[in-house]
Amino acid sequence: MSPALPDGEPVPDDGSLPSWVTAGAADRAFGVYLHVPFCTVRCGYCDFNTYTASELGGGASQNAYATTALAEIALARQVMERAGLPPRTVSTVFVGGGTPTLLPAGDLARMLDGVRDAWGLAPDAEVTTEANPDSVTPESLALLADAGFTRVSFGMQSAVSRVLATLERTHDPRRIPDVVRWARDAGLEVSLDLIYGTPGESLDDWRTSVESALATGVDHVSAYALVVEPGTKMAAQVRRGQIDLPSEDDQAEKYELADDLLTEAGLDWYEVSNWARTVDGAQRACRHNLAYWRGEDWWGVGPGAHSYMGSNEPGSRGVRWWNVKHPLRYAARLGEGLSPAAGREILDDVSAQLETVMLGARLREGLDLGVLSTRARRAVAGHIASGLVDGRAVLRGRVVLTRTGRLLADTVVRDLTD
């Protein structure tokens, strides 16, 4: 079961934005997220807003979905123009899910064409799709590259079959080197996503997964601790005592092992859970995710997708909104010419500052010391003494977490927010 949408104030039926979102917009990057809510099966740990094909029909079906998403893209362009936002080409596009590559490559290309037609793509735009290793072929990846995609992020999760079985992942881990090679042959950059802390996963299992990912030669790896969300099948298994979750010490040991192996292989951390190689003087970080963490503008297309517009600078305001969750209702509202937005939240100066700290502290570039309150700046000294914050970086005016600090990022953030 995917999580409930947050509470919020109503959104006008035409999706109108507050006039003040235009302040400083010309200096902010603009990205687009496209949500594809389909999966072959629903994994027991997952609480994303996803559905199997048999659950949906009408304008929410896989066959009709690209056309439905294009309707929201057209609406988004109108809403932004009415708000007086300046013309901006799209700097990043991220297609997530679900499993976007369950759609034909031609449908993903049509959706990207819709973005291109609405706003244009920057010459160096990063265009990513997520994919399961068993949902692509050399031909489909070549078609995506020809359509303008530049990057693919494969959900590898583990190289150990029994760990994948616990996660209810369907792919054969032996396929990973093949799909990476196919993507690279097509001219795509490649990222591999890993999960650590699966019940029953040993430290050696985790080492095998990280080393297997590195053996493919990819330039980007994400490693996320498994979080068992309420309402999922795995949460019920834990509650019934069918499986046991690992300890915090186990999770920390696996994080440190990943950081050691990835760093030794030439991939440096740039966000708590993400590592990338520097190629030709540029780090192969996911620019779309960096835009989220830096508070840039983005429009989220699809059921349950979130969007954000506005400045997070002191004295400014931003607005976040989210679409109705169920694909059938999403398609119905667009079919009636209405915004699919379910609610929104106005971020005042205090809320924006809180988010700036929460997100910025997770980045290797760190957080500007100047955005912190006087009380929070005093707390930084204590975290330097306890080894959670890099003292040399603070002398340069930045709050940067040490590796121990990355393990305790939530604790540090709590102390830096009022």
Describe this structure in words.
By secondary structure, the protein is α/β, with parallel strands linked by helices. It folds into 2 domains: 273 residues, TIM Barrel; 70 residues, no CATH class. The chain is built from 15 helices and 17 strands. The protein is globular, with a radius of gyration of 21 Å. Keywords: 4Fe-4S, Chaperone, Cytoplasm, Heme, Iron, Iron-sulfur, Metal-binding, S-adenosyl-L-methionine. Belongs to the anaerobic coproporphyrinogen-III oxidase family. HemW subfamily. It is found in: Cytoplasm.
- What is the CATH C-level name of the largest domain? Alpha Beta
Radius of gyration: 21 Å
Whole-number total of structural domains = 2
- CATH fold name of the largest domain, please? TIM Barrel
DSSP summary, beta strand count: 17
Mean pLDDT: 93
Strand content: 15-25%
- Second rung of CATH, namely the architecture of the largest domain: Alpha-Beta Barrel
Report, as a whole number of angstroms, the end-to-end distance: 33 Å
Shape: globular
Largest sheet: 10 strands, mixed
Fourth-level CATH superfamily of the largest domain: Aldolase class I
Poorly predicted parts: none
Query: Helical percent range?
Result: 25-40%
Structural class estimated from helices and strands? alpha/beta
Number of helical segments with 4 or more residues = 15
GO molecular function: 4 iron, 4 sulfur cluster binding; coproporphyrinogen oxidase activity; metal ion binding
Main location: cytoplasm
InterPro entries: Aldolase_TIM, Coproporphyrinogen-III_oxidase, Elp3/MiaA/NifB-like_rSAM, HemW-like, rSAM, rSAM_sf
Family: Belongs to the anaerobic coproporphyrinogen-III oxidase family. HemW subfamily.
